[in-house]
Amino acid sequence: MNLDNPAIFLSLLVFLPALAAAAIACFAPNDNPEVIKKATFWTTVVTFLLSIGMLFGWPGIQFQAGVDSMQHLFSVDWIPSFNIYFALGIDGISLPLVLLTTFISMLAMGASWPIEKHVKAYCVLFLLLETGMIGVFLALDFFLFYVLWEVMLLPMYFLIGVWGGPRREYAAIKFFLFTLFGSVLMLIAILMLYFSSDVRDLPTAKLQEFRFSPAQIEAIDEATTPQHTFSIMALQELGQTTDQFKGKLAGMTYEWWAFLLLLIGFLIKVPSVPVHTWLPDAHVEAPTPISMILAGVLLKMGGYGIIRIAYPICPEAAYDLAWLVCSLGVVSMVYGAFAALAQTDFKRLVAYSSVSHMGYVVLGLGVWSAMSPDYNADYWRWGMNGAMFQMIAHGVSSAGMFFMVGVLYDRVHHRDLNKFGGIFGRMPVYSGLAVGIFFAGLGLPGLCGFVGEVMVVLSTWKYCIVLAVIAASVVILTAGYILWTLQRVYLGADYNGPHPEALTPLTSREFRIAAPLLALAILFGVYPRVVLDYMEPSVSRTVEQLAPMTRKFEAKKAEEPAETEIAATTHSDMAS
């Protein structure tokens, strides 16, 4: 196998966990769960090493920092009768998320050692879930993206429903229904865009850039009927340079409807208020390693979908509805923080904190501040980069917080905050790591949570001062529930809950999971360039493509009232 070939390398990166899952399902002995766990863990390790190899000079596929375009892009026939292709590629937007996915998956599998029920089934589903997550971040065909998006749904449903807590069936069904609803809306938008598209309007140079084969380009040139496409990059170009998605439906354009449907589907995954209610139940009932993946990776797919698909393909609708995106982001921040303050369940508090922190992501993506009179896109660029950085930072801190909650739950089998206390004296190493990780979630300067939040708040000031002030004020609420939690759990009076004898020091396995998370939280907080150097060129390129279109959108809006007035006058004259 030639791993120097980008097509082979990226395909292996996506499907290695699935191949390992098939091997485990077929050949692993049921009576030796330890072997199955080790095989699964080492599969996640190899997958992580493959992904990290792109940064450190893996021959032929090294990722070039500072390059803003898609790298190692390839496309091969899959279902050519519908112009569906197996297309993968990676850029500065997807690379950090792929690395986050493989890293958190590796740690989550390390945290899965306490799992004892149906170990083979658990490990197979875990690896299938990893394949779906990596594939979503690399897919450049909309149909392939949708298939991989759905691949994640079933494993996560069973991982919650079989290995979760007492109300696991309810939480799993709620997660399934919410996610499926969002997927159906996304599918409608995909079909709407597909049947409105025609790649004959794109120049040959662009088709070559998007890796259309010579045979495909020749067929497109000779075609006399519309040539529809699922290519995400082609749809982005069509959305930004043509009027193909401007057909009317119920008074609004196809683009407007497609953006709204995609936005709802992605916001369910983020999740944002009011489509967030599945998250606390899923987190509370999910086993610890699945909570780590759910918070650390799955929530980021919503933000990724907005920046990769919704905004670039439907820019005019995104501009029109930027106020909605920003408002939902701020509402989620405030609501999540107040809800966290009201919790007495340790895990549910952390779940609501995720709703609040992911609100910064939605707000940063939405602050389309390149408006008249100066049309300066710098602030929006800060917001977009801040949102992307916040996704990585939250992936690290939230996974760490859920793991720390799980460490206590595995010992004392409860999460009641009112029954904790004095943990620092009984488990000093654990408590020190936990305090550091929770401070990273708080957004303390010098830790990872601070950078993204500051960038988002600064960018919002140019868009709307009121929203910026509210977003900045949420930091006070965040400090309130984080510090109150630390005081109730780790400080204060002595522990007064059940099983006090079980409060034993961290095991070496637990330490090896928690310490890397805290180390990354410090590294990203002290030296954020380690992430931004790879991320910023591609994110800024997206802003630079979309921001100049603001003049066109505003000019179009200025013409619409005049056209309406002329039409009304004409109608009045005819009536006379």
TrEMBL record:
One of its GO terms (cellular component) is membrane. Belongs to the complex I subunit 4 family. This is NADH-quinone oxidoreductase subunit M. It holds the Pfam family Proton_antipo_M. It comes from Aeoliella mucimassa. It is found in: Endomembrane system; Membrane. InterPro entries: NADH_Q_OxRdtase_chainM/4 (IPR010227), NADH_UbQ_OxRdtase (IPR003918), ND/Mrp_TM (IPR001750). Keywords: Membrane, Oxidoreductase, Transmembrane, Transmembrane helix. GO terms for molecular function: NADH dehydrogenase (ubiquinone) activity; NADH dehydrogenase activity; ubiquinone binding.
